Amino acid sequence: MPQNATSSASKSQTGYNLDEQVGFILRRVSQRHLAIFAEHIPDLTSTQFAVLAKLCEVGPLSQNELGRRTAMDAATIKGVIDRLRLRGLVTSRPDPGDLRRITVLATEDGRAMFDQFSQAALAITEETMAPLDDQERVAFLTLLQKLV
Amino acid sequence: MPQNATSSASKSQTGYNLDEQVGFILRRVSQRHLAIFAEHIPDLTSTQFAVLAKLCEVGPLSQNELGRRTAMDAATIKGVIDRLRLRGLVTSRPDPGDLRRITVLATEDGRAMFDQFSQAALAITEETMAPLDDQERVAFLTLLQKLV
DNA sequence: TCAAATTCATTCGTACACAAATAAAGTTTG
DNA sequence: CAAACTTTATTTGTGTACGAATGAATTTGA
User: Fold this and answer.
1) What is the mean pLDDT of residues B12-37?
2) Which residues are in reach of strand C, CB within 7 A?
3) Region of residue A80 (phi > 0: left; psi between -120 and 50: alpha; otherwise: beta)
4) How much is the mean pLDDT over chain A?
5) Three-class SS state of A1
6) Can you tell me whether residue B93 is helix, strand or coil?
7) Strands A102-106 and A61-62
């Protein structure tokens, strides 16, 4: 009997096979998604677009709050905002009610950029999900949501 | 009628809602997975462990080939191997048959490290998938695989 | 057979991602 | 009210991730 009863993939004695682990597959799916993203929206990274989209969706937010809503920690959101500000897509002003806070908002240019690319962003989602039919997409999103 | 017919989440005029996009959910699931990883295996990053696992699984490989098998580009795999080598977990030697190539292999310590943590790595996969029952896990992995 | 194309490893630059430490501002509570 | 705690933003350091450029080695194909 051959060394492996379950599949063609090799396995160590301990039963660990990299190619079967969720984390590894998850990373590769993310890579594919980010490649699709860069094809459709080469001007912005996916994280930059996420921040811009969130600002356009809900309006001005403090930097930390914005980070929370886009799933970025304080250090990360700062860098993203710095780069967006450098390009004139967002501005910030002090919060009059709380001297610790910085309120971040999209500029005219930022809004224009979001409007310009929001359709492309939907196309990115579509292309990422392209290998699945409609039923599978619903099922996949439902399951994926449970893993957050 | 309120502005939104489909759900409680807000939507822009263009129909783009960040929280519904696969890419965004994918990123958050990856974040959760990496947090679980770091809890179980604080000594190595998931990418470092992936490289070590692949080397223990298939034996010595050229640096580029190793990168291909672990889904890392040439620049990324070099950094990962440099850090693993610095810690004595892998070594490398020139390929006699091809002067461009560097053959990378796990050291004794590297193998020991993999053996020590391979069970933990399986527990990481288990914990990542914990919100799903057995049927859902199979379904999820099948669908996720299609998106690579 | 020799020029063109490809592969391999390296380097540089940019951009997340997060831990840990810090300081200032705000909140809670004894 | 003051001490203790929390929140906010910043900084530093480490580690992916990838595009682009480079040079050396190998393969190819006319």
Assistant:
1) 93
2) A 45, 47-48, 71-76, 79-80, 83, 97-100; B 27, 31, 34-35, 38, 62-65, 74-75, 78, 95, 98, 100-102
3) alpha
4) 92
5) coil
6) strand
7) antiparallel
